[in-house]
Design goal:
2 domains, 0% strand, mainly alpha, Serine Threonine Protein Phosphatase 5, Tetratricopeptide repeat, 495 residues, 68% helix, 21 helices
């Protein structure tokens, strides 16, 4: 009871100052301008089309995100409170609290230690890398997906550990686990890795000594999850017309992809370990040569991860599983052709951080074994209090960045001055009050220039920048220049 009470405070208090933040970024189009979320609108389109269906009715190829539970949750909250950013922020914080409870329960099952489970859940509750997912209303799918993946895994463990094969409780837990997995898929596509987590757990914790028998058990126990995933893919194919998605055609060879992905994985792990500085828009630069030091660092890091997995899988299966959790849940964002405009995004770390926090707690518990027993609990409590206080303060401070678009993109520009999208958003905010803004013109021009220099060119933001310039010149009555910018915008979009 005491542990649960403390975890509620740790999960909620650092985000209290986020409740007054306004709608930012995609919130405008996804929520405020979405007619499907208005009172009296038909609910069925929320379950039969993608997230952006209301904007891309004539372009089904751009409607690639099928997340009906995200939109249905928005609709339910709005039906009660209206389009209130306070209510929607409360919703996000509420989901975050639930996810902390589920991590605590899951960590108890994995570690068989309340102390380790509490420490890991406390770290998860205040980890600063979660601020993007919690503060940004449109990032709710990352939290919702995590909640149901955690619930599915927890229920699976209850079924797996029930001795009697005919127990009604075992089959109930099985059924609920599969149902939660299906719900996780309807929150976000990244839940598709859950069968791999189930297989990894069975392989590592199986009492069977032979590796071949462990593999067989892992396949059999995870098979129902693969079946649910197959049904989801068929549903997605039927509704959206595709299973996989492609958002950007990177002009990279197979070797360059092989060098880039280890570095990308390394960056994600580093951000979990050192969650500073935080940035809403990280500029992604692929590794194109073996002479690039990033290629060497990435390969060395992957080699280190492999060595850790080999060393721990029999000696410390819980630690091995926690490392695998991070790796497996990061696999979807390794597909750099399918993720959004910013390949590296902090919200993608919400689910992977579950495994990371458990790993840190398990390693710390092993390290504390070297401390004299009479001082062990005090030393562990002090260390945890220091880290939780530091992370909680960082989270509280970070929330203010998401106050409104002007604040968010102004601060993001300081971290990513060469990001065309950020330049466009800053320019748009500056020209809202002054249609002839010189600062807006400067940012639009830089956005167009930077977008053209990217490989491949970022034609979407290039076109938006030229349209912004056309509006500025039109407001100044410089119509010839405005028409020239519109021509360039059409050429950019035509590609």
């Amino acid at each position: 009871m005491l542990a649960c009470g403390i975890l509620v405070l740790l999960a909620a208090l650092p985000y209290l100052n986020s409740l007054g933040n306004s709608f930012v970024w995609d919130d405008q189009q996804q929520i405020i301008m979405n007619p499907q979320l208005r009172a009296g609108a038909d609910w069925s389109p929320l379950f039969s089309a993608g997230v952006w269906a209301h904007l891309h009715k004539d372009s089904p190829g751009r409607n690639i995100y099928y997340r009906p539970l995200q939109m249905a949750t928005y609709r339910a909250v709005i039906a009660v409170s209206g389009i209130s950013y306070i209510a929607l922020h409360l919703m996000s914080v509420g989901f975050a609290v639930v996810s902390v409870f589920l991590t605590f329960a899951l960590f108890q099952q994995l570690s068989d230690s309340t102390e380790v489970a509490f420490a890991a859940a406390a770290l998860f509750a205040v980890h600063p890398v979660h601020t993007e997912a919690v503060d940004w209303i449109s990032a709710l799918p990352d939290i919702g997906c995590a909640v149901f993946v955690l619930a599915a895994l927890l229920l699976f463990l209850l079924a797996y550990r029930t001795a009697s094969p005919s127990s009604w409780g075992k089959w109930l837990a099985w059924s609920l686990s599969l149902a939660c997995f299906a719900c996780a898929l309807l929150w976000k596509e990244t839940a598709a890795v859950s069968p791999l987590l189930v297989a990894a757990y069975v392989f590592l914790f199986s009492p069977e000594p032979a590796s071949r028998s462990r593999v067989r058990s892992a396949i059999l126990w995870s098979l129902p999850f693969w079946a649910v995933l197959g049904g989801y893919l068929l549903l997605r194919l039927h509704l959206l017309g595709s299973v996989a998605t492609t958002q950007r055609a990177w002009q990279l060879s197979a070797l360059q992809i092989a060098m880039t992905l280890p570095w990308l994985m390394t960056q994600y792990w580093w951000k979990l370990l050192v969650p500073a500085p935080l940035n809403a828009y990280h500029v992604f630069v692929p590794v194109e040569s073996l002479n690039d030091v990033r290629a060497i660092v990435g390969l060395l890091f992957l080699g280190g991860l492999l060595a850790i997995l080999i060393y721990t899988w029999r000696r410390f299966p819980a630690t091995c599983f926690s490392v695998l959790w991070v790796v497996v849940t990061l696999l979807p964002v390794m597909n750099i052709y399918a993720v959004g405009r910013n390949v590296f995004a902090e919200r993608y770390l919400y689910l992977p951080s579950v495994g990371f926090c458990l790993m840190v707690a398990l390693v710390a518990a092993q390290a504390l074994q070297r401390v004299p027993e009479r001082r062990r609990r005090l030393a562990g409590s002090i260390a945890l209090a220091i880290v939780v206080s530091l992370f909680g303060g960082m989270t509280f401070a970070r929330n203010t960045t998401w106050k409104d678009n002007a604040t968010l993109f102004g601060k993001t520009l300081e971290r990513s001055p060469n990001a065309p999208f950020v330049q466009v958003m800053v320019a748009a905010a500056q020209t809202e009050d002054d249609a002839t803004s010189q600062e807006g013109e400067r940012h639009y021009r830089k956005a167009a220039n930077d977008a053209g220099e990217e490989v491949p060119p970022d034609r979407v933001n290039m076109g938006i920048a030229y349209k912004g310039l056309a509006a500025i010149y039109s407001a100044r009555a410089e119509y010839d220049r405005g028409l020239e910018m519109l021509t360039r915008a059409r050429e950019a979009h035509a590609g």
